[in-house]
Amino acid sequence: MTALRDLLSQGVQMCLVLLLAPLLTGFVRKVKARLLRRRGPPLLQPYRDLIRLMRKDVVLADNASWLFRVIPYLMFAGTWVSASLVPTFGNGLLFSWSADLIAITALLGSARFFQALAGMDVGTAFGGIGSSREVMIASLAEPAMLITVFSVAMIAGSTQLSNVAEFMGSDAVGLRVSLGMAFVALTIVALAENARIPVDNPATHLELTMVHEAMVLEYSGRHLALIDLSSQLKLLLYYPLFLERES
After folding, report:
1. CA distance 134 to 146
2. How far, CA to CA in Å, does 199 sit from each of 69, 137, 202, 233?
């Protein structure tokens, strides 16, 4: 019964992160629009966009390789697994033993690598520009993320997220300068990872500012829907990480 309950809780976690990721994106867009004194899109607009893209046909360039077709599925799988391993809606998940901060960082880094590879696959100018910028940002963001992980791991005594969450919720944490600096570093990494201002702007299509959008210009249909859903899952993934460090 215990194994069945753990399996059920893990399945619920995977379904919840998948269903609520577009809602979080819609909420962020709504708040951003309100701050700019605009009405903004409906809260459920990301769901409508995903359904619309799923119904459309996929248009591929003549020189697109098989890797260009497979990469959206690889990105979605890696990001979904990473978001499912983070204890967002509960602790003691079935696969919590594998929820290692280093493993999650590696999964996100692999998804970023494949996305940069897809941007260069077709050989367009925009794809190459976006991929080169993404790799440059990754060369700065990934070491910062690892330093943050090691800082937290040295204090908590483990890189396993369940142990880190348990330690952060105890009275043994106290006020630590290292955790404060790790929080600042994680904030900067989250802005870079999720293509947010000032690193990137997901709402623009200007050549001088495009990074993420430049790499996915050649995608359409269900492939673009999977990439958008992967970005939404990544955004949702970072929120519980912030909460764990704040607690």
Report:
1. 18
2. 28, 8, 10, 19
Asked whether the beta carbons of 243 and 88 are under 8 A apart, the reply is no
162-187, pLDDT tens digit by residue? 777 777 767 767 677 777 888 888 88
What pLDDT score does 70 carry? 92
Count of domains in the chain? Answer: 1
Query: So what's the pLDDT on residue 44?
Result: 92
Other Cβ atoms within 10 Å of 202 Cβ, number = 16
For residue 60, count CB atoms less than 10 angstroms from its CB and return exposed for 0-12, middle for 13-18, buried for 19 or more. Answer: middle
- Cβ(54)–Cβ(222) below 8 Å: yes
CA distance 22 to 12: 17
Give the C-alpha separation, 141 to 242, whole Å: 16
3-class SS of residue 210: coil
Round to whole Å and give the CA distance between 201 and 211. 8
Vertex 152, ends 20 and 76: CA angle to 5°? Answer: 30
Range of the domain at 225: 2-246
Q: What is the pTM of this model?
A: 0.84
